[in-house]
Amino acid sequence: MRAYEIQGDGGIDALALVERETQRPGPGEVLVRLRASSLNYRDLSTVLDPLSRGLSLPLIPNSDAAGEVVEVGPGVTRFKPGDRVMGLFFQRWTSGGISAEAMASALGGALDGVLCEHAVLREDGLVALPDHLGFEEGATLPCAALTAWHALVTKGGVKAGDTVLLLGTGGVSLFALQFAKLHGARVVITSSSDEKLERARGLGADETVNYRQTPAWAEAVREATGGLGVDHVVELGGPGTLEQSIQATRVGGRISLIGILTGMAGAVNPTPVMRSSLCLQGIYVGNREMCEAMNRAIGLHGLTPVVDRAFDFAEARAAFHHMRSAGHFGKIVVRI
Fold first, then answer.
1. In what helix (H) or strand (E) does residue 332 lie, and over which residues does it extend?
2. I want to staple 148 with a disulfide (CB 3.0 to 4.6 A). Which of 175, 186, 324, 335 is the partner?
3. Which of 205, 208, 257, 255 shows the shortest CA–CA distance to 231?
4. What is the DSSP-derived secondary structure letter of residue 313?
C-alpha cells in the first residue's frame, strides 16, 4: 500500500510517499480501505516538529480517516466487509473517563496514523459512518467534531437559550457552531477575517467579532450578552486568548480548553477563575460512546460538515501547506 511517512524533522516537504506491506487483521481487528483523511492542527504540529514529541519514526501522520471494511479478524462481530466506517482518534477509549492507556492509543502519534491506503484498526476503535455522509465528510468527524461535541454536549450540557463563544473558524469551532445551533443556543464567534465571519453567519452565528479590529474582544462579547457574559467558551487559542475568554464568561460559566493556537508560552492569572466560580476543563477529543451519540444526532438532523477543500492523495503535502497558511474555513481533506 502507499503511505506517507514522517521520517525526520524536515517538515512538510520532507513527508515521504512510500510503499508499505498491507497488514492482515488479527483477533479483534479490522482491515479498512481508507478513502479520505482530514487534517487537524495537531497533525500539522506533528509533521513540523516530530522530534520534540518523542515519537518513534518513521510514523504515518493523521488521526482521522473514513473508508470501507475489507476484512475482519477472528472474533469481530460489530463489522463486516463492505461496511462504511471511520476510525476513532483513541483506539482504546470506549467509554468512561480518559486514562493513560487511552492516551497511549492515539492514531498519528503513539500509533501509526491514517494518511495511507489501508489501516488495521481495533474493532472497538471504529464506528459506522452516518448514512447521509460521504467518505470525505465522514473523515472530518473523529477529532474536530467529537472534541466539539464532548465540550458542548457531553460535558457542557448546552441547552436552548445558552450563549456560546467560539474562537476562530477552524474545524472545531464550526462543528461547535453547528452543534450549538442544533441545541437552540445563541452563538458568538470571533475571527480576524470579515469574510469568514460572514460565512459563519450563514451557518447560524448570531454575533460576530473581528478580533483584529477589536483587540479587546472580551468587552464586545460582554456587550453582546447585556454585560452578563457567555455560558460556554470553546477555547482554542491557549495562553494568548485565555484571559479574555475568562473575562467574557459569566459567573459560574464553563470554559473548555482545547487548543494552543497562540503557542504554549504565557501566564494566566487564576484569580478571576476562582472569583467567578468558573469551570475550566481540558478537553482531549472523546470516547467511542460519545462518538456514537454524536453520529446519531448528525444522522437525525442531516448535519453536513463544512469542508474547505479536498486534495488528491498525491497532493497531501499541499494540504498541509494550506493548513499552515491559516486561510481555510472548516476542514481540509485528503482523498485516498
1. strand 331-335
2. 175
3. 255
4. G
Instruction: State if pTM tops 0.70.
Output: yes
Domain 2-140+305-335, second-level architecture: Alpha-Beta Complex (3.90)
Q: Which residues pair with 256 in a beta bridge?
A: 234, 281
Give residue limits of the domains in the chain.
2-140+305-335, 145-282
Secondary structure of residue 249 in the 3-state scheme: strand
Compute the distance between CA of residue 77 and CA of residue 92 in angstroms, rounded to an integer. 17
Nearest to 237 by CA among 258, 216, 218, 261: 261
Give 24's DSSP letter. Answer: P
Residue among 268, 248, 305 nearest 66 (CA): 305
Digit-coded pLDDT (tens) for 51-102? 888 899 999 999 999 999 999 999 999 999 999 999 999 999 999 999 999 9
307: helix, coil or strand? strand
Nearest to residue 153, comparing CAs of 130, 176, 171? 176
pLDDT for position 52: 87
The mean per-residue pLDDT over the stretch 205-211 comes to: 97
**Taking the alpha carbons of 164, 168, 171, 174 in that order, is the dihedral positive or negative?**
positive
- The domain 145-282 having CATH identifier 3.90.870.40: the answer here is no
Angle at 44 between CA 118 and CA 24, to 5 degrees: 15
Question: Rounded to an integer, what distance in angstroms lies between the CA atom of residue 87 and that of residue 327?
Answer: 27
> What tens digit of pLDDT does each residue of 223-259 get?
999 999 999 999 998 888 999 999 999 999 999 999 7
Task: Quote the CA–CA distance of 136 and 327 in Å, as a whole number.
Answer: 20
